[in-house]
Amino acid sequence: MNMTKVMAMKRILIAALLLLMALPAAAAKKKPAGKPLTEEQKTIYAIGLVFARQLEIFDLTPSELNLVKRGLDDATKGREPLVDFAAYSKKSKELASARRDEHGKKLLPKVPAFMAAEAAKAGAVKTESGLIFQSVRAGDGAQAAPSDRIKVNYRSTLIDGKEMASTYKVGKPEEFFVNEAMKCLSEAVQLMKQGGRARLICPPDLALGKEGSGVIPADATLVYDVELVEVKK
Predict the structure, then answer these.
(1) This prediction's pTM
(2) What is residue 124's three-state secondary structure?
(3) Cα(111)–Cα(118) distance, integer angstroms
(4) Which of 63, 65, 67, 227 could bond to 153 as cystine, CB 3.0-4.6 Å?
């Protein structure tokens, strides 16, 4: 995937959150009550959905979520912050990474059994690289090659089913060159034809490795449901 675009989007979302937190009390009073009806209300409601997605990485307890709400309430009403924002903004990033990787570590002991079960499924093929590929629907269009530009729909999760990303939620396929994709996806789509769909199990060295990225933990084994929408020769 295009990680530059992903990081740019994250910066935009963070900036949007900071902007909302800086709004004066008068703006806070304009929040729509109940179901959003106008386009503006729906857009403002969507901001809440965006924030919720950004908070998923923290795996917050109910009491921790209340602290987040307190921070938003204090900021929008112009109250004096209870902590130094500059100092704790950095700490929040560190906490996000720590909790992300903590969740990933809990899954590591389960990976061998998971991989074995997936490789044993009917139609599953384990390639030389370690990718487990299972065709869900054969395509009847063009075969993807390394230099081709393609459009794909996908949903990725950890082995426990926790969602990492989904083009279905974005509402449109992602487009990229085959040879610029993550190793796992690059290899897999070359086993597919346009219109095909497959389930992929991607070991860490074919995914994001020891560093992880965003919501994806370090050393994560990723599960992809991929649909090859279009191959551009």
Answers:
(1) 0.73
(2) strand
(3) 10
(4) 227
Phi, psi angles (nearest 5°) of residue 231: -115, 120
Which residues have C-beta within 8 Å of that of residue 219, sequence separation ≥ 6? 104, 108, 204, 209, 210, 212
Tell me which H or E stretch contains 150. Answer: strand 149-157
Question: Do strands 174-177 and 163-166 pair parallel, antiparallel, or not at all (unpaired)?
Answer: unpaired
Residue 206 has pLDDT above 60, yes or no: yes
Q: Tell me the domains of the chain and their CATH numbers.
A: 3-82 (no CATH), 109-232 (3.10.50.40)
Whole-number mean pLDDT of the chain?
Answer: 86
Q: What is the C-alpha to C-alpha distance for residues 155 and 145, in angstroms, rounded to an integer?
A: 22
Rounded to whole angstroms, how far apart are CA atoms 3 and 78? 36
Burial state string for 129-162 with b = 16 or more CB within 10 A and e = fewer than 16 = ebbbbbeeeebeebbbeeebebbbbbbbebbeeb
